[in-house]
Structures are given as structure tokens and as C-alpha cells.
């Protein structure tokens, strides 16, 4: 079984605490349920590799199903949350899963024992080592996925346990969606450590979330910079139960003042703030900054997780990570799922950085064509392609907003702009449109990105 | 515009809803736009519009349009 759950058949410490139903599932029961789910799934699809697409919600049934599929040697593709029906249908058409777990019906699928099972046609086979297909962006905008092997998923869970020192008495809530690599890594690492996970989908802005944390004695909290901005506004001191002493932060660089604020919060409680760096391409985590390095090294990304190494490519300046948790490669559709490991454990992160003598990584920039806005990663070339529907378009990273220059008389109307932002997983105010007579071009005919940045972006449509 | 209509407009803007969308029965997480991030966007919009600073308890309790009206009333916003 995945994460050694089969060895925990007599372990009666809590594994999953479901805040929604109040259920407490200990490791013995979880290992029984996961075995039963694995059998049920195998009965549905027979032997051999198969893909399960599902809403990986924060409840015992969904988590047991996910772990059952992984334990049965199947691959799981979590559907992005908030995905509308058309988006789900497009992903199903693209990746052609053997099974779909969701309420709404699926065309070409029959309902059997709680799942939609593909009826009839046989799609190209999957690689037997494939375990997880995760969206590269975290939003529904891009259909591009990261292919993670079973060993990479298990290795990264162990690396995180070691780097954070997660012991069996830790209790972490699901403060981030489980379809997001960082959120999923919290679940996986805690199960690998024999610790407990508090399953809640309420989010930090809701009272039931804090009631669940207090009621179940949460010891840690995971967040992205946007979460910590909210926690700062909400006053974490007044909300967090006294048991909560560990904070983890990843998902992009956080403002130094905010890091300092939450380092001080943890220090007051005798706890720790772990600043981490990672990518979905590495099953989540690449580096962790030892809490003792704060506040002196605020802004650093950390040191490689155990079993991994970091270097900077002298030719490109790119940060390169080597380790057992590196993905097999990307996928854009079913035909790609049969491919094996294409990276050999070496990941060019596309981020620019430097390393201290002791191996501490500092990110100094990133590939200009990848923007990180509101915790979502956006491929600007992809965004540009989608925006061509409205005219000749060029996209730029404005920091906490996305700029779209359009060679047109005027930007599209508000409803279209809202719809476009929603597709990217953004709020309409996070996308600024600018109608221009012509896009700035280099003599090569390519977009002049430097000139693009200099356009008068402040003008709101 | 009446104060009530102003609140409705702020709800629509915060959650990227169409002009004129009915928001009076909205509740937290009932629509995709009203997640944690949307919630904080709404709080910031209300605070700016009415020049006030909501207590943490009130931020957490503002889980529906009706609750928002009730809480804003407490801060002297006449709805």
C-alpha cells in the first residue's frame, strides 16, 4: 500500500479527522478502507494501469478512494476545484480516464459501483509507474499536466517528513486544496509520518475552519503568500489554538515583512516557521529553509530536501534540482501517459538563482514567460494564445496582475473579460487589458517584452 | 444609489458577478467566487467604501449577504 499504510493495521492513532462529519479514522481503519477501495477499483477496471479522475475533496471518502487507487497501482488525476462542467468534460475528453468519480454524468461512461466507467473504446495505455497527474497551474486554465511516478510521490513525502521533522503527534489541517501539489503534499507527508490530518474545506476566512483547528488540536498550518496576507489581516494570534506552533509557507516568494511577522508569531509560541521552495514538477517540495536561519536569511528559498541536490547552471543561470522526487515529464493528453521517465531525476526549474557556500538557495528571478499571480502559475505564451481570440495579443507579468495588450480598437467588454479571468482562475481586477494601435515588436518580428512593460498599464478599461 | 444597492454592487464586483445579478441570498462558498480570497476582497471593498475597520469576529461571521447587512448595521452603516 502507498505510504506503508499496510504496516499500520494495528495502529490506533488517528489518521484522518473529518471536520465535516466528525468522523475519526485511525490508521488501522484507514488501512482497511484503503485496501477495500483498491479491491473495488480493481474489480471495476481489471488488472493493468488505469487512470482515475476525481474531485479530491477534503473528506474521508475521497481521500480513501485516492489512496486506494494509488495502492492498487492506478494513477489519479484530481480535478481542479471550481471547474465548471464544460471544463471537466474537456479534461475527460483529453485524458480519457478509465474511471471518473463525481456526481454529474459523463458521456460515453456508465455508472458502476459509485464511479463512471468508460464504456467501450480502449484508449492508449498508461505507463505502469504513473501515480499522479497534477495541473501545472493550479487553475482550470491550462490542460497541461505534470506526470509523477509512484516512487517520486512516496520519496517526496519522506523528504518532507525528514526536512520538517514531522512526528506522529503532529496534526495538520487541509488549509489548501488537495488538488494543488502543496496541499496534497501536506496530506501525503503526514500519512507517511503516521501523523494526523484534519480534513476541512472551509478555508481560513470561515469560522468553522478555526473551530475544527481548535476542536482537533491542530499543531501546524500550511499557507501560500495569499493565505498569510489573509492571516495577517485576520490576526492569527487571536484565532490559532495554543497547540498551533508550526507554520509552513510555499507557493511563491512572500513579502519579507510578512515572513518576519509570522516568524515572530511562531517564535512567541516556541514554534517554527518553515519557508519552502518547490514546484509541482518535483512532487511539491525542493528546498526548506531551516527555521533557525530566520530572521537572518529572510528571502532565502532554503536548502535542498534530504536526498536532493541543487545547482545553478553556469550557462543559463537556471536553478537545477536533482532528486528522487522529480517528475517523469509533462502531458497534454492521453497519448503522453504511456511515456516513461524523460528527465532522469534532473529538473531545470526555469527559476534564476544563486547558492551560498552552505547550499542555501536564493531565487533571484524567473523565466520571463512564467507569471505567478495570486498563487497561480500562468504560462504567458499559453495566455497569449487564448487571448488571440480578441485580436493580436501579448501578455506580461505585472507582479500581482496580468497585463494583456491587444492590437484592437478597444478591450473586450466586461462580461468577456470576467469570463477570461475566470478561465485563468483569476479575479477580473487581476487582469489589465490595454488596447494599442500595434504591439511593440523587435526587428525579429517577435514581441518586444521590454517595450511591453513600458506601456501605460495603469489605464483601466 | 441607496446604501443597500451599494453593498449589492460591492458583492457583485468582489465575486465577478454580472451587473444586476441577484446577490441577496448569497452565502460563503455557495458560488466559486466566494472563497477565502473572494471573502477578503469583499471585506476590503466594504471597509474602503464605508471607511471602517471590521473586527476579526465580524470578518469570520460575514458568511452571507444577510449577515453582511446585519454586521454593517452594527458599525453604523444604515441599511
- Please estimate the helix content of chain A: 25-40%
User: How many DSSP-defined strands of chain A?
Assistant: 26
- Helix fraction of chain B, binned, reads 40-55%
What is the structural class of chain B?
mainly alpha
The number of helical runs of chain A is 12
Give the topology, please.
The complex is a heterodimer of chains A (461) and B (79).
Chain A: E1 14-18, E2 24-26, H1 27-45, E3 51-54, H2 60-71, E4 75-78, H3 85-95, E5 99-101, E6 109-112, E7 115-118, E8 130-135, E9 145-149, H4 150-164, E10 171-173, H5 181-192, E11 196-199, H6 207-215, E12 220-223, H7 225-234, H8 236-239, E13 246-249, H9 256-268, E14 272-279, E15 284-289, E16 303-304, E17 309-312, E18 318-322, E19 329-331, E20 346-355, E21 361-366, E22 370-373, E23 376-379, H10 380-387, E24 392-397, E25 402-407, H11 414-424, E26 431-436, H12 449-453
Parallel strand pairs in A: 1-11, 3-4, 3-5, 10-11, 12-13, 13-14, 25-26
Antiparallel strand pairs in A: 1-2, 5-7, 6-7, 8-9, 9-19, 14-15, 15-16, 17-18, 18-20, 20-21, 22-23, 24-25
Helix pairs in contact in A: 1-2, 4-5
Chain B: H1 3-14, H2 36-50, H3 56-61, H4 65-74
Helix pairs in contact in B: 1-2
Summarize the structure.
The complex is a heterodimer of chains A (461) and B (79). With 461 residues, chain A is α/β, with parallel strands linked by helices.
Task: Give structural notes.
The complex is a heterodimer of chains A (461) and B (79). Chain A is an alpha/beta fold and 461 residues long. In chain A, 28% of the residues lie in helices and 27% in strands. Chain A has 12 helices and 26 strands. In chain A, a hairpin with a 4-residue loop joins strand 24 (392-397) and strand 25. In chain A, helix 1 (27-45) packs across helix 2 and helix 4 packs across helix 5. Helix content of chain B is 54%, strand content 0%. Chain B contains 4 helices and no strands. The radius of gyration of chain B is 11 Å and the shape is globular. The model of chain B has no long low-confidence stretch (mean pLDDT 94). The interface between A and B is medium-sized, with 26 and 20 residues.
Amino acid at each position: 500500500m502507498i505510504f506503508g499504510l499496510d504496516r499500520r493495521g494495528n495502529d490506533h492513532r488517528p489518521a484522518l479527522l473529518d471536520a465535516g462529519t466528525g468522523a475519526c479514522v485511525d490508521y488501522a481503519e484507514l488501512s482497511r478502507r484503503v485496501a477495500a477501495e483498491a479491491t473495488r477499483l480493481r474489480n471495476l477496471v481489471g488488472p493493468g494501469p488505469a487512470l482515475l479522475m476525481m474531485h479530491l475533496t477534503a473528506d474521508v471518502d475521497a481521500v480513501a478512494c485516492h489512496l486506494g487507487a494509488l495502492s492498487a497501482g492506478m494513477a489519479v488525476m484530481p480535478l481542479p476545484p471550481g471547474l465548471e462542467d464544460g471544463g471537466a468534460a474537456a479534461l475527460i475528453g483529453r485524458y480519457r480516464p478509465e474511471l471518473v468519480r463525481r456526481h454529474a454524468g459523463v458521456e460515453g461512461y456508465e455508472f458502476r459501483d459509485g464511479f463512471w466507467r468508460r464504456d467501450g473504446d480502449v484508449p492508449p495505455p498508461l505507463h505502469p509507474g504513473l501515480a499522479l497527474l497534477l495541473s501545472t497551474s493550479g487553475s482550470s486554465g491550462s490542460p497541461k499536466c505534470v506526470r509523477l511516478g509512484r516512487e517520486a510521490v512516496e520519496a517526496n513525502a519522506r523528504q518532507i517528513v525528514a526536512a520538517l521533522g514531522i512526528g506522529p503527534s503532529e496534526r495538520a489541517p487541509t488549509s489548501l486544496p488537495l488538488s494543488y501539489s502543496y496541499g496534497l503534499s501536506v496530506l501525503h507527508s503526514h500519512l507517511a509520518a503516521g501523523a494526523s490530518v484534519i480534513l476541512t474545506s472551509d478555508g481560513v476566512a470561515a469560522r468553522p475552519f478555526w473551530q475544527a483547528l481548535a476542536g482537533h488540536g491542530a499543531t501546524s498550518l500550511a499557507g501560500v503568500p495569499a493565505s498569510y496576507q489573509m492571516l495577517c489581516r485576520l490576526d492569527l494570534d487571536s484565532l490559532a489554538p495554543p497547540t498551533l506552533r508550526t507554520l509552513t509557507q510555499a507557493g511563491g516568494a512572500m513579502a519579507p515583512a510578512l515572513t518576519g511577522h509570522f516568524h515572530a508569531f511562531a517564535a512567541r509560541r516556541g514554534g517554527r516557521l518553515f519557508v519552502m521552495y518547490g514546484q509541482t514538477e518535483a512532487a511539491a517540495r525542493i528546498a526548506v529553509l531551516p527555521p533557525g536561519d530566520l530572521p537572518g536569511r529572510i528571502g532565502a528559498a532554503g536548502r535542498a530536501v534530504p536526498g536532493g541536490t541543487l545547482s545553478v547552471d553556469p550557462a543559463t543561470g537556471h536553478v537545477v534540482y536533482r532528486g528522487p522526487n522529480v517528475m517523469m515529464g509533462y502531458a497534454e493528453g492521453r497519448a503522453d501517459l504511456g511515456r516513461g521517465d524523460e528527465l532522469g531525476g534532473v529538473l531545470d526549474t526555469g527559476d534564476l538563482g544563486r547558492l551560498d557556500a552552505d547550499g542555501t538557495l536564493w531565487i533571484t528571478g524567473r523565466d520571463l514567460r512564467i507569471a505567478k499571480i495570486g498563487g497561480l502559475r500562468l504560462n504567458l505564451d499559453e495566455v497569449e494564445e487564448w487571448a488571440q481570440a480578441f485580436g493580436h495579443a501579448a501578455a506580461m507579468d505585472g507582479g500581482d496582475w496580468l497585463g494583456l495588450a491587444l492590437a484592437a480598437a478597444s478591450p473586450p467588454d466586461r462580461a468577456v473579460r470576467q469570463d477570461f479571468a475566470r478561465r485563468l482562475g483569476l479575479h477580473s481586477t487581476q487582469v489589465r487589458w490595454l488596447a494599442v494601435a500595434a504591439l511593440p515588436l523587435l526587428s525579429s518580428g517577435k514581441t518586444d517584452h521590454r517595450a511591453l512593460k513600458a506601456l501605460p498599464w495603469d489605464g483601466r478599461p | 444609489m441607496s446604501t443597500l444597492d451599494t453593498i449589492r454592487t460591492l458583492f457583485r464586483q468582489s465575486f465577478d458577478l454580472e451587473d444586476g445579478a441577484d446577490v441577496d441570498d448569497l452565502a460563503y462558498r455557495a458560488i466559486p467566487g466566494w472563497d477565502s480570497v473572494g471573502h477578503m476582497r469583499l471585506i476590503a471593498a466594504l471597509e474602503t467604501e464605508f471607511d471602517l475597520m471590521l473586527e476579526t469576529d465580524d470578518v469570520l461571521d460575514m458568511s452571507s449577504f444577510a449577515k453582511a447587512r446585519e454586521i454593517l448595521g452594527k458599525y453604523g452603516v444604515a441599511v
